[in-house]
Amino acid sequence: MKKGIKIATIGGGSSYTPELVEGFIKRYDELPVKELWLVDIEEGREKLEIVGNMAKRMVKAAGIDCEVHLTLNRREALKDVDFVTTQFRVGLLDARIKDERIPLSHGMIGQETNGAGGMFKAFRTIPVILDIVKDMKELCPDAWLINFTNPSGMVTEAVLRYGKWEKVIGLCNVPVGAVKSAAAVLNKKEEDLFFKFAGINHLHWHRVFDKDGTELTEKVIDALYGPNADPAVVVENIKNMRFLYEQVKNLKMLPCPYHRYYYMTDNMLKEELEAFHNEGTRGEVVKRIEAKLFELYKDPNLDHKPEELSKRGGAHYSDAACEIINSIYNNKGTVMVVSTRNNGAIDDLPYDCAVEVSSIIRAHGAEPVNFGKFPPAQRGLLQLMKAMEELTIEAAVTGDYATALQAFTLNPLVPSGDIAKTVLDEMLEAHKDYLPQFFPKEAAVH
Amino acid sequence: MKKGIKIATIGGGSSYTPELVEGFIKRYDELPVKELWLVDIEEGREKLEIVGNMAKRMVKAAGIDCEVHLTLNRREALKDVDFVTTQFRVGLLDARIKDERIPLSHGMIGQETNGAGGMFKAFRTIPVILDIVKDMKELCPDAWLINFTNPSGMVTEAVLRYGKWEKVIGLCNVPVGAVKSAAAVLNKKEEDLFFKFAGINHLHWHRVFDKDGTELTEKVIDALYGPNADPAVVVENIKNMRFLYEQVKNLKMLPCPYHRYYYMTDNMLKEELEAFHNEGTRGEVVKRIEAKLFELYKDPNLDHKPEELSKRGGAHYSDAACEIINSIYNNKGTVMVVSTRNNGAIDDLPYDCAVEVSSIIRAHGAEPVNFGKFPPAQRGLLQLMKAMEELTIEAAVTGDYATALQAFTLNPLVPSGDIAKTVLDEMLEAHKDYLPQFFPKEAAVH
Amino acid sequence: MKKGIKIATIGGGSSYTPELVEGFIKRYDELPVKELWLVDIEEGREKLEIVGNMAKRMVKAAGIDCEVHLTLNRREALKDVDFVTTQFRVGLLDARIKDERIPLSHGMIGQETNGAGGMFKAFRTIPVILDIVKDMKELCPDAWLINFTNPSGMVTEAVLRYGKWEKVIGLCNVPVGAVKSAAAVLNKKEEDLFFKFAGINHLHWHRVFDKDGTELTEKVIDALYGPNADPAVVVENIKNMRFLYEQVKNLKMLPCPYHRYYYMTDNMLKEELEAFHNEGTRGEVVKRIEAKLFELYKDPNLDHKPEELSKRGGAHYSDAACEIINSIYNNKGTVMVVSTRNNGAIDDLPYDCAVEVSSIIRAHGAEPVNFGKFPPAQRGLLQLMKAMEELTIEAAVTGDYATALQAFTLNPLVPSGDIAKTVLDEMLEAHKDYLPQFFPKEAAVH
Amino acid sequence: MKKGIKIATIGGGSSYTPELVEGFIKRYDELPVKELWLVDIEEGREKLEIVGNMAKRMVKAAGIDCEVHLTLNRREALKDVDFVTTQFRVGLLDARIKDERIPLSHGMIGQETNGAGGMFKAFRTIPVILDIVKDMKELCPDAWLINFTNPSGMVTEAVLRYGKWEKVIGLCNVPVGAVKSAAAVLNKKEEDLFFKFAGINHLHWHRVFDKDGTELTEKVIDALYGPNADPAVVVENIKNMRFLYEQVKNLKMLPCPYHRYYYMTDNMLKEELEAFHNEGTRGEVVKRIEAKLFELYKDPNLDHKPEELSKRGGAHYSDAACEIINSIYNNKGTVMVVSTRNNGAIDDLPYDCAVEVSSIIRAHGAEPVNFGKFPPAQRGLLQLMKAMEELTIEAAVTGDYATALQAFTLNPLVPSGDIAKTVLDEMLEAHKDYLPQFFPKEAAVH
Ligand SMILES: [Mn+2]
Ligand SMILES: [Mn+2]
Ligand SMILES: [Mn+2]
Ligand SMILES: [Mn+2]
């Protein structure tokens, strides 16, 4: 593999691409990316051209030997690549906005990776990723698939279970942020701390250890969520990450930000409904931010990642992807938090499902650090959510209506009963164009 | 053991007692109960006398050789008994009404064995049952404890795990009803069908097999919940047992009636709120029924179980208790559905927890029929609920506020967030007199 | 199914057949076998005719309405049957004698269901049973397969795992004998005792309970193996069933007779070598007994099972088969010990393997009584043996030499090392004609 | 902890001590050992003085600031230490020689960590280690216990399970040797390879990966055990490490050298019997080597580890101990192979047992890399051996004769039957002085 590296990025027209390119540029000495193929679909042609040209300017400004290719032909790009990264969004931000607004219009959580919205994102995304895997088997059978399309955990599990593709790693930037905020409140260097994460994507917990072996987990809980938490120290963005102190303290582990949807459901719903009725959902906000970003990207003089990208959310996502690729390529043995096959690392979950755990990253892949069993509070929620994920993935693959309804019934963010069916039906209809598995030929919704 | 049998019934002043007495009378030939000790507390003295005298009349009318004793001295009653049955209700119906009305007043499910209400019933009941077990170790170390105080599954688990008492069986009348309704819609005799139940108390699923080996489960699902379900055939009482047909059909198992709280949460909540604002909660209705029942029981000419008792709910409960006792005493090998230690009968749950499963009942106890693994839809909910039970039991034993809050957070019928804490605090205050473990000495609520 | 029953018996020329026929005759009222097809192969034509004609005489003498058919055409017999029973022996007793003599000639245990011999019996038998299953799928897809060909557990597992045939039950007469000997030494009626068996075929343990719930296991251990064991009470045949008293007492469960091979390996080997050098191995003895039996069977006046059959070994085997069929046909719910899929009944073994456990037998099949976890002494040996079985079955199906060698290495009755390979090679050569999977086309042994 | 380090070495009079001292000297810059307490018992006073004085000379020659203390007072040494290392041998080499010769005199494997000998080493050692732990709780409750007294895995499990002491790591030099031999035959640098070990002490398997992610395991199997293995490349010492090529190839993992006892039992027994009847057992050889070593150590001019120590066996043992201490002290995150609590890292073994697995070593302890499930060939042997270990440890703690006999019966290197009891009895008698738990007061052997 120690020749130059060829990478294909599916969804290359994404606003994230500059961070990815920056990540490759700054690692070029140890990770010589010689070809970067940015792939998109007809619908995204304009964005691909804007961001692709900017990528070319960045590479040129950096003075590295790397060709950036823009293409709408995925198969051309996949040919003989070493790594495929995925950051596509089926149906673009308009689909996300529907994922948010439809549930909210029925008084339930509307969010792009949780609740009904996250399930529909899985329904739209999984058939596409399985199609990519089909192409990879033919065109680049030795490549690694580094997925950061959400819902990242379910996508990874679909690739493993239904795609029968082993060389996949799922990524998320949440653990990166958790490490940063713990280091900040402890006033310690990240590299002096050891983090042990376990759970599933957007639903994991972690413990923190100091370099002398002392566990600092409760100290971080206190600093972030305790009665005397100092907002000045707490990093921006998580200021509104409200939890009940007694409850998270009782966990003896740190929750992830998405736990707010499960631990503070009522409060989160109120916040979301407020936004829904006023400035718009997060998807609508992001759409406005993106429009501005693309205006910036058009500037033929811009040849580096602009500051404004950080507002987009998803910071560190692409950088984490570069670091994974680097660790694999250089067999570094870095400990990172990734979605990978469980194989018993978490005893409470099925052996062959995908989990998100601290793992050693080497050339042969991710080796999870063993976690073992969770105490009941974590275990119960985690097991429920994994079962919900299994059903969601199955429905995404089979297009079976009853399985989708079952998954809706199980999801704790979807009130069960007639309302679940009503929302399911409405969302199926709204996303019809991206759900061929549920609408074979001309068949109408249930 | 083949001498005459001595039984102590804790909560002997219950309105259920006549069914229990009737059960013993009709089994007298094979199950010669020579002494029945009805035990109650000072608060229940009047009810004990009314129902106890009625029990005496019943026994006399039946012409059997059985002494009925009424006592407020539990230890006197427990001395050398063969079986202890428990049907007490800490705080009487007034506590139940609080369990229902407080959550409903905050817009959440209020029910006596589910949600916040069920958890508080556990908080009040578990310390008392552990105290009974302590007495049994001293006074009747070879006796069987047949518990039908709710929440029956959690009470059984508390006895096993914290009471370290092995000879306990938990009971519920729900499986009896499920058998009857399946037989009714299939128009077959109960004894020609085989039922395989598994889950936990008030959250189990079952499959039905015909005498030629055909599985009839889906047929029963169709008959009870399908688009063409015939209300005339469906037995009274379950007419309002609404489910989403596609969802229960997808289970390939029959849910229990309490599943409505989890599968039709939104609908159930609306129904409950309607009652809350109008005729009153179930507890209030039952209180009125009971008042009438006790008026009947006062009649010195009444010497048999009156028809009106069937409206009380809980029919077949006491009869099931008699049948368990009979199966143990006579080593009958009957297959019944009971709460007992898991020991791996259900692979998805902890080895040492209590489960409710079809079991062979013999003199040495309950031998569960192996069940194995559930599919994901059942598994996820079941695992969540068991974790919630573990936390609830732990909080009931330790009186730890954070553990109680954790259990509230996990319970799918309690919206998580600030509202959970508010309701927890309000209920702790309301039930203060029955929760010494949460209020040691003079300490105020959190 | 309540028409008359049609049964096909593969290996119908076996000397066991009269017991089977007797079993059907005596159950005729509740189990009306209208057609019994005795099937054998060309090699066994003579025996089939002798024993088949005897079967016809038995049926006639009994005056029941049952046709006995003799055929060498297996497919003709399988057509539309309700039950298939298997009692064939690939390679006849001569193959058994090789299974015994070759290992013994190298100083290791030579026995037909244990050690190298049992593994080769599996190698010869499994391809044939899978071929039968293939026919059954086509000719009698609703039939039950009742297997009593040894090694019964491995054959059952092969049918489940590789044959993908669910309606199979494996049988053995060992548990029947264990029940009889426990009842004898306790001087109690079998029906007053409850037995809980668990393990795998020829390697299971059991506990015994009295009708008042008292566990009698240790009492039976003492009576059978204790220092004061009374040979007069101990039933014939098990008098030489030597165990170390302290060791079996420590098990707190009763071992099965075949445990002698694992618990008393050294002593058993000495006994076998003695026989090997003198009167011949058990196979040679049985061959002489069988010759005499078939002489008896030839007698045109003999129309009932002769006493002499009991010396053959395997008594109660066929009767157990009749009882299983009866329990299935009449949905009796009898508790019997059978080989069936584990599904977690024994936690220490793989979920999908075959185990031999006390099970409720109903029309829809065998429902194992849950067993749970064994203590370490039982667990370790059981897990080793199951792994050995898995490898043996895999080798039997694939004909892979290295897998067979691996199984030999794991088997505790085969000393590992060069000697294992030597014996494997010699036995492969000796049984070559019955092992096409190991000798595709003309390829020589490894 | 970043003050100077204080270490106590129990069994400080061992011939290994110079390697340990050398290890501390060469790491002094990052691992500043300021006090080294060499502890021994009266019986070992002379050896302690010889080797202790040599240690003092080594430290002096190295010019480091480290005090070496010699003491027979264990409690004085343990006071406030940071690390305790254990390398004691109860009963000295004479006990080892009995562990070897008694079994061999009965024709069974006689080896110090396997078979009957290893079990007796556990019987003698475990009570002493538990006594050390008792002192540690009082005198150095924050210290780490680094055990390299054999049987290292059982000793570690005893400390965890019965000593209730979490801060323990068990060590062995076998993985170090395996890494060296794989690197040698592959002609690659150790640091370019990744090794994944799992199993239990002296019974683990490993896989090898190249720095480009390619698995090299089978290549190493071929190089070491294949028909074309080149003795010139194969490192000394393992030249006689015979395995059956087909069998180890089928494992798809590399066995450890001690696997020869289980995979080549017959051959190993012959080799041992040959030595037993000629040059003497390994213990006798080692005794002669040690005598010479101590002669060398007496030389007042010797101030460095002599070459001759490498013949002693156990090379790299002490160096591994220094490296573990270094990794803990400096929170290095090195991946090493250690005995630690399973917690599900190996799914096939009990959750709370000790396993030997590749682990990340940090200041808070060993974090095992998850392994998951073994294929059946490894699984069966591993599960058997772990059960045998559990029984051995239990017998070592309780002194229960029947449990010891059970462990003997299970051990595959001890032929079961009367001979097992005979050898057990003879060894109990021979080691009587070191087995107070089996001989309370004056009670005679069974
Ligand atoms: Mn994410
Ligand atoms: Mn109930
Ligand atoms: Mn058998
Ligand atoms: Mn070692």
From TrEMBL, chains A, B, C, D:
<keyword id="KW-0533">Nickel</keyword>
<dbReference type="GO" id="GO:0046872">
    <property type="term" value="F:metal ion binding"/>
</dbReference>
<feature type="binding site">
    <location>
        <position position="150"/>
    </location>
    <ligand>
        <name>substrate</name>
    </ligand>
</feature>
<dbReference type="GO" id="GO:0008706">
    <property type="term" value="F:6-phospho-beta-glucosidase activity"/>
</dbReference>
<keyword id="KW-0119">Carbohydrate metabolism</keyword>
<feature type="binding site">
    <location>
        <position position="202"/>
    </location>
    <ligand>
        <name>Mn(2+)</name>
    </ligand>
</feature>
<keyword id="KW-0326">Glycosidase</keyword>
<keyword id="KW-0520">NAD</keyword>
<dbReference type="InterPro" id="IPR015955">
    <property type="entry name" value="Lactate_DH/Glyco_Ohase_4_C"/>
</dbReference>
<dbReference type="InterPro" id="IPR019802">
    <property type="entry name" value="GlycHydrolase_4_CS"/>
</dbReference>
<feature type="binding site">
    <location>
        <position position="172"/>
    </location>
    <ligand>
        <name>Mn(2+)</name>
    </ligand>
</feature>
<protein>
    <recommendedName>
        <fullName>6-phospho-beta-glucosidase</fullName>
        <ecNumber>3.2.1.86</ecNumber>
    </recommendedName>
</protein>
<keyword id="KW-0464">Manganese</keyword>
<keyword id="KW-0479">Metal-binding</keyword>
<comment type="similarity">
    <text>Belongs to the glycosyl hydrolase 4 family.</text>
</comment>
<dbReference type="GO" id="GO:0016616">
    <property type="term" value="F:oxidoreductase activity, acting on the CH-OH group of donors, NAD or NADP as acceptor"/>
</dbReference>
<dbReference type="Pfam" id="PF02056">
    <property type="entry name" value="Glyco_hydro_4"/>
</dbReference>
<dbReference type="InterPro" id="IPR001088">
    <property type="entry name" value="Glyco_hydro_4"/>
</dbReference>
<dbReference type="Pfam" id="PF11975">
    <property type="entry name" value="Glyco_hydro_4C"/>
</dbReference>
<feature type="domain" description="Glycosyl hydrolase family 4 C-terminal">
    <location>
        <begin position="197"/>
        <end position="414"/>
    </location>
</feature>
<dbReference type="InterPro" id="IPR022616">
    <property type="entry name" value="Glyco_hydro_4_C"/>
</dbReference>
<feature type="binding site">
    <location>
        <position position="96"/>
    </location>
    <ligand>
        <name>substrate</name>
    </ligand>
</feature>
<keyword id="KW-0378">Hydrolase</keyword>
<dbReference type="GO" id="GO:0005975">
    <property type="term" value="P:carbohydrate metabolic process"/>
</dbReference>
<dbReference type="InterPro" id="IPR036291">
    <property type="entry name" value="NAD(P)-bd_dom_sf"/>
</dbReference>
<feature type="site" description="Increases basicity of active site Tyr">
    <location>
        <position position="112"/>
    </location>
</feature>
<keyword id="KW-0170">Cobalt</keyword>
<keyword id="KW-0408">Iron</keyword>
